[in-house]
C-alpha cells in the first residue's frame, strides 16, 4: 500500500480532533497502518514550538514572527514525522497543516498568501497533503461547541475575536473552491458518527 498524507482543516470547534480519532479507528479496523499527528506539533521540536505559539499573552508574537514559528514547527514535523511515515506506507492523518497558516496568519492575520506558501517551500519543500478534508460548520454552532469545551479558557489564537474567525472560515472556503482536486468540504453538522461516515466517503478514491 502506498502511503497517504491526509489533513483535516477548519476553524475552531468544528470537530477535527474528534473526527481524526474516529477516522483512525475506522481505517485501522480495515487493516491499515495509521499515524495520527497534529499541528502545531507532531514532533518533539514542533511540540516545543506549539507551547511558544499557543501559551502566553495575545501580543506575544507579531504576525510575521508567528508565521515563521508555524513554518519552523512544520519543517521539523514534515521531516521527522510525516515523510518517514508516508515512506513506510502509513496513512498519515494530520490535524491542521499548511492551510491553517494560510487562513490564520495569511487571510485573517494580514500576511500575503504567497509569503506563507514561500515559507512552506523553504521549510518543507512545499509538501502538500494528498487530500485535505475541510470540516464546515455554521459559525454559531462551532462557537457553541468551542465554548462548551473550553469553558472560557481558549488559547492565544483561539481566543481572537469573531471577525478574525469569520475571516479564517471564509479563507478555508476559498481555498477549497480554488483547489477542488485536493480539497473535499464535508458537512460537520449532525452526530459524530454521521460526520465520520461522510469523511470516509470523501477518502474512498484514495483507500484500498
Ligand atoms: N458531531 C458533534 N456533535 C456535537 N459535539 C461535537 C461533535 N463533534 C465534536 N463535538 C464536540 O465539540 C467540541 C469541539 O470538538 P473538537 O475538539 O473535536 O474540535 P476541533 O475542530 O478539533 O477544535 P479546535 O480546532 O478548536 O481544537 C468538543 O467538545 C467535542 O466533543
Ligand atoms: C497549524 C496552525 C494552527 N493555528 C492555530 C489554530 C488554533 O487556534 C491553534 C491550534 O489549536 P488546536 O486546538 O490544536 O486546533 O493554532 C494557526 O494559527 N496557524 C497554523 O498554521
What is CATH's topology name? Rossmann fold
Instruction: Please report the first level of CATH classification, the CATH class.
Output: Alpha Beta
Structural class: alpha/beta
- Which outline best applies? globular
Q: With helices defined by DSSP (H or I, 4 residues minimum), what is the helix count?
A: 8
Gap between N and C termini? 8 Å
Radius of gyration, in angstroms, nearest whole number: 16 Å
Largest sheet: 5 strands, parallel
Number of strands: 5
CATH superfamily (homologous) name: P-loop containing nucleotide triphosphate hydrolases
Identify the strand order in the major beta sheet.
Answer: 2-3-1-4-5
Strand portion, in percent?
Answer: 5-15%
User: What is the number of independent domains?
Assistant: 1
Q: What is the level-2 CATH architecture name?
A: 3-Layer(aba) Sandwich
Provide the list of bound ligands, each named once: adenosine-5'-triphosphate, the ligand Cc1cn([C@H]2C[C@H](O)[C@@H](COP(=O)(O)O)O2)c(=O)[nH]c1=O
What report would you give on this structure?
By secondary structure, the chain is of the alpha/beta class. The protein has a single domain (4-202), classed as Rossmann fold (3-Layer(aba) Sandwich), CATH 3.40.50. Helix content is 54%, strand content 13%. Strands 2-3-1-4-5 form a five-stranded parallel beta sheet, sandwiched between helices. α1 packs across α8 (192-201) and α3 packs across α5 (113-124). The N and C termini lie close together (8 Å). Ligand LXEULUCI binds next to α4.
Amino acid at each position: 500500500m502506498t502511503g497517504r498524507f491526509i489533513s483535516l482543516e477548519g476553524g475552531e470547534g468544528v470537530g477535527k480532533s474528534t473526527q481524526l480519532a474516529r477516522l483512525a479507528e475506522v481505517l485501522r479496523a480495515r487493516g491499515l497502518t495509521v499515524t495520527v499527528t497534529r499541528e502545531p506539533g507532531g514532533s518533539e521540536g514542533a511540540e516545543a514550538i506549539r507551547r511558544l505559539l499557543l501559551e502566553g499573552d495575545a501580543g506575544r508574537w507579531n504576525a510575521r514572527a508567528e508565521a515563521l514559528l508555524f513554518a519552523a514547527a512544520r519543517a521539523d514535523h514534515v521531516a521527522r514525522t510525516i515523510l518517514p511515515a508516508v515512506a513506510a506506507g502509513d496513512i498519515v492523518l494530520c490535524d491542521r497543516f499548511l492551510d491553517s497558516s494560510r487562513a490564520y496568519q495569511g487571510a485573517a492575520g494580514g500576511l500575503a498568501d504567497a509569503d506563507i506558501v514561500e515559507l512552506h517551500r523553504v521549510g518543507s519543500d512545499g509538501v502538500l497533503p494528498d487530500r485535505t478534508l475541510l470540516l464546515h460548520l455554521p459559525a454559531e454552532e462551532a462557537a457553541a461547541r468551542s465554548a462548551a469545551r473550553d469553558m472560557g479558557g481558549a488559547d492565544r489564537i483561539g481566543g481572537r475575536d469573531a471577525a478574525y474567525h469569520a475571516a479564517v472560515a471564509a479563507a478555508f472556503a476559498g481555498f477549497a473552491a480554488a483547489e477542488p482536486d485536493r480539497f473535499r468540504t464535508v458537512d460537520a453538522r449532525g452526530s459524530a458518527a454521521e460526520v465520520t461516515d461522510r469523511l470516509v466517503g470523501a477518502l474512498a478514491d484514495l483507500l484500498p
